[in-house]
Design a protein that fits this description.
about 250 residues, alpha/beta, TIM Barrel, binds glyceraldehyde-3-phosphate, TIM_sf
Length: about 250
């Protein structure tokens, strides 16, 4: 099964419009590679400018979140139709920072996922355990629970439109990276979970990205792993040279 590889930059709450446009143009000037998707996820304020900056290139643009309703009295929220109207193709859902700081639950992940699929946005659903959960041997249980809740009731036809991202919370922004073996072990667990919940075909076609202190120096080892289909990059995506270095390492 030949799954596509994706290198996605999650810019989090960084970059003003001018900075975002400069970075997006630098990334878009990098080489396009067969079978490799390059995605940039800027903050909402910069989305439109980044879409324009990469227009005509191989680079795609996504949002970092979306609300489950299409519209309504939900101050400061952004909906699927709004993301589509600005030219976004993807959306990140359930990032651990949303879970940790903004009350994201499995239920809201599932509702956001439904909204993304309803509007033809390609969802990237994040899962991952904390350091305490890993140290107490709960990694598999935590992931199974996040997957079961976040993907509850999803059909196989819907699941193949979803990309998953395994992001161990202890490796995000800390400089600690899961070893190649640790990451592969969890990715294999997730793929086995998908095979059991759906079937082998779904499990084998679903992209599973790794996120957590991915840098040019460790990207090649991680991406060489059988069940790692790309990277969701935070800090190292904020600099063109390091993000292009990760792409080059694929
Ligand atoms: O979404 C990206 C992840 O949170 C990884 O962030 P990081 O590369 O800064 O550790």
């Amino acid at each position: 099964m030949n799954r596509r590889i994706m290198v996605a930059g999650n810019w989090k709450m960084y970059k003003t419009i001018d900075q975002a446009v400069a970075l997006a143009k630098a990334v878009a000037a990098g080489p396009a590679r067969q079978g490799l998707d390059v995605l940039l996820c800027p903050n909402f304020v910069c989305l439109e400018a980044v879409v324009r900056a990469v227009a005509g290139s191989h680079v795609q643009v996504g949002g970092q979140n979306l609300h489950w309703q299409d519209e309504g009295a939900f101050t400061a929220e952004i909906s699927g139709p709004m993301l589509r109207s600005v030219g976004a193709s993807h959306v990140i859902i359930g990032h651990s920072e949303r879970r940790q700081f903004f009350g994201e639950t499995e239920k809201t992940v599932r509702m956001r996922l439904a909204a993304a699929l309803r509007h033809g946005l390609k969802p990237i659903v994040c899962v991952g355990e904390t350091q305490a959960e890993r140290e107490s041997g709960q990694t598999d249980d935590v992931l199974a629970s996040q997957l079961a809740g976040g993907l509850a009731g999803l059909s196989a036809a819907e699941m193949v439109k979803v990309t998953l991202a395994y992001e161990p919370v202890w490796a995000i922004g800390t400089g600690l990276t899961a070893s190649d073996e640790q990451a592969q072990q969890v990715h294999a667990f997730i793929r086995a979970w998908l095979a059991a919940r759906f079937d082998n075909q779904v499990a084998n076609s679903c992209g599973i990205l790794y996120g957590g202190s991915v840098k040019p120096a460790n990207a090649a080892g991680l991406l060489r792993q059988k069940d790692i289909d790309g990277a969701l990059v935070g800090g190292a995506s904020l600099d063109a040279d390091s993000f292009l270095g990760i792409i080059a390492a694929v």
